[in-house]
Amino acid sequence: MNGPDWNGTERKEYYRGLPRKISDFCRFLVFHQTAEPGNLFSSFLLVVMATQAVNFATYIYITGVTWLAMLWYYQEDPPHFVLFFPFYIVLACVLWGVTNIVKKVYDFDDCVSAREELLGEIDEARKNMKCLKKD
Q: Would you say 57 and 25 are in contact if contact means Cβ atoms under 8 Å apart?
C-alpha cells in the first residue's frame, strides 16, 4: 500500500498551512470574547472555555502530527496499527468517557448526610405549601 500520489512539493505545500490555520483558530477563540463589561465571572468562564479549546486543539494537532510522521516513516507498507491510529485514539477516549460516567453514577449515592438534609428541606417546603393553602 503506497502513500498519496503527490510529489514532494505538493505535500509540503498542503501540510505547511495546517499549523497556521490551527494557531489562527486558537487566537480567534482566545481574543473574541463576548462577555458583558464588568461581569468578571462571565469573562472568567469564557477564558477558561477558550483555554480548554486551545488545549483540545493542541492535543489534536500533536496527535495528527504524530500520525502523519508514522505514515511518512512507513510510506511503503504501513502496519495495521499505524493506519488505524486515529480510530484507536477515538476508541480510547470513548472507553475512558463511558468508564468515567459509569464510575460517577455508581459513586453518586455516597452522601447519606446530604440526602437526609435534602429530604428534610423537601418536607419543610411541603409544610410551608400546606400553610399557604390554608391561608
A: yes
Confidence category of residue 74, pLDDT binned at 50, 70, 90:
confident
Whether 45 and 92 share a structural domain: no
Residue 24: Cβ within 10 Å count = 10
Are 75 and 22 in a shared domain?
yes
Instruction: Please list, in sequence order, all residues whose beta carbon lies within 8 angstroms of the beta carbon of residue 83, skipping any fewer than 6 positions away.
Output: none
Nearest C-alpha neighbor of 85 from the set 100, 66, 103? 66
Of the candidate ranges 23-32, 33-42, 79-88, the one whose mean pLDDT is the lowest: 33-42
**What pTM was computed for the model?**
0.42
All cell numbers assigned to 85 = 491510529
Q: Are residues 125 and 74 part of one domain?
A: no
What's the chain's average pLDDT?
74
Structurally, the chain folds into a number of domains equal to: 2
Task: Print the domain residue range for 67.
Answer: 1-79
